[in-house]
């Protein structure tokens, strides 16, 4: 696994957080009317009761803009030098979605790029944003995780259609010191491309287009081998989280809040048990929003901070596992900020600087 530790002098510090969900809410009861399943089966297998889905032409970029506005409102500034967007569902294959998001946020001219690591995307983006700050390339970075995952799910596949939801979360990072609230600790990242077929979308890319074979509608849908994914996810997240805590100089008993990617409640529970983190120190929103992939961690952070479940100076452990295969973990001291989250409504104007 690779590591990312900003050098002394310039450190990435979280100074704003926001989250946004599309207005359309979908309950388990609604899904059972078109899928061969029951509400009890969905809840017992996933922990999910409700999720939000895009409709009416809403896209990943739209979600990202709304979350970005809320994060900048939280930070009290629009003075951003770079926009990093973690997503599995870009608005189109080319160009990247981040430059369009930046332009719509009034940030034309800044660096902007997408990061693709599926559900681990936010942590890969966090390491990238911290690197931009540590190197001096940026003083402020807007990091967004946004997904319209329902657009790549087979609506007739009960194994995936019940799990995923759409949404976006974002944080603003600024240059600061390693010992102040909001400071991002070491990031631990890993991958195993030899197991890439466990989570994939077979079609749409260069390999499928150049193969010469006829494409089918199923080629464009997300596929996942659930039992294998569960086994690898629990092992990799546990290992990465333990490593991140150790590199931060913490003990697992000192973690105030465990904020895992909301993949499946059973995965989160299994990892927490292996880490010795009891339920009182775990934070979750999967019951209400489902698995929002790269948006999961920042969305959960913003909602939890707004609700007072994550408090200033809390020692926070972040962890995720996704397609690639990819995985990662990071530590964070939570800042004293006002986080914002919204469903379907647009935020007020952001201060100019």
From TrEMBL:
Molecular function terms from GO: beta-ketoacyl-acyl-carrier-protein synthase III activity
Subcellular localization, as worded in the UniProt entry: Cytoplasm
Biological or metabolic pathway of the protein: Lipid metabolism; fatty acid biosynthesis
The family this protein is said to belong to: Belongs to the thiolase-like superfamily. FabH family.
Beta-ketoacyl-[acyl-carrier-protein] synthase III C-terminal domain sequence ranges: 246-334
Assembly and binders: Homodimer.
Chief location of this protein within or outside the cell: cytoplasm
CDD domains recorded: KAS_III
Reaction catalysed by this enzyme: malonyl-[ACP] + acetyl-CoA + H(+) = 3-oxobutanoyl-[ACP] + CO2 + CoA
Stated name of the protein: Beta-ketoacyl-[acyl-carrier-protein] synthase III
Beta-ketoacyl-[acyl-carrier-protein] synthase III N-terminal domain: residues covered: 113-193
Pfam families the UniProt entry points to: ACP_syn_III, ACP_syn_III_C
NCBIfam families listed in its UniProt record: fabH, PRK09352.1
HAMAP family assigned to the protein according to its UniProt record, in alphabetical order: FabH (MF_01815)
Domain of life: Bacteria
């Amino acid at each position: 696994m690779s590591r990312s530790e900003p050098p002394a002098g310039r450190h990435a510090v979280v100074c704003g957080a926001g989250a946004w969900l599309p207005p359309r809410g979908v309950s388990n009861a609604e899904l059972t009317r078109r899928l061969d399943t029951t509400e009890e089966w969905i809840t017992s297998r996933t922990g999910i009761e409700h999720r939000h889905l895009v409709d009416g032409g809403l896209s990943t970029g739209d979600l990202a803009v709304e979350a970005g506005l809320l994060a900048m409102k939280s930070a009290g500034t629009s003075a951003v030098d770079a926009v990093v967007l973690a997503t599995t569902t870009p608005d189109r294959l080319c160009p990247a979605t981040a430059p369009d998001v930046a332009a719509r946020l009034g940030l034309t001219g800044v660096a902007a790029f997408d990061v693709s690591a599926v559900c681990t995307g936010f942590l890969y983006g966090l390491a990238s944003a911290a690197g931009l700050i540590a190197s001096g390339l940026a003083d402020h970075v807007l990091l967004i995780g946004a997904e319209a995952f329902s657009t790549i799910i087979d609506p007739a596949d009960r194994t995936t259609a019940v799990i995923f939801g759409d949404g976006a979360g974002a944080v603003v990072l600024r240059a600061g010191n390693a010992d102040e609230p909001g400071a991002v600790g070491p990031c631990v990242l890993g991958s195993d491309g030899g197991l890439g077929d466990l989570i994939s979308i077979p079609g749409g890319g260069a390999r499928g287009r150049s193969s010469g074979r006829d494409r089918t509608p199923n080629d464009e849908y997300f596929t996942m081998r659930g039992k294998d994914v569960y086994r690898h996810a629990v092992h990799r997240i546990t290992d990465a989280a333990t490593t991140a805590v150790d590199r931060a100089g913490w003990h697992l008993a000192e973690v105030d809040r465990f904020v895992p990617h909301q993949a499946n409640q059973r995965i989160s529970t299994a990892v927490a048990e292996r880490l010795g983190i009891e339920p009182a120190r775990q934070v979750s929103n999967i019951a209400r929003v489902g698995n929002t992939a790269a948006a999961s961690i920042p969305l959960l952070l913003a909602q939890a901070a707004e609700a007072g479940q994550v408090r200033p100076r809390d020692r926070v452990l972040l962890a995720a596992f996704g397609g690639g295969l990819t995985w990662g973990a990071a530590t964070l001291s939570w800042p004293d900020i006002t986080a914002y989250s919204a469903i379907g409504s647009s935020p007020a104007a952001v201060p100019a600087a």
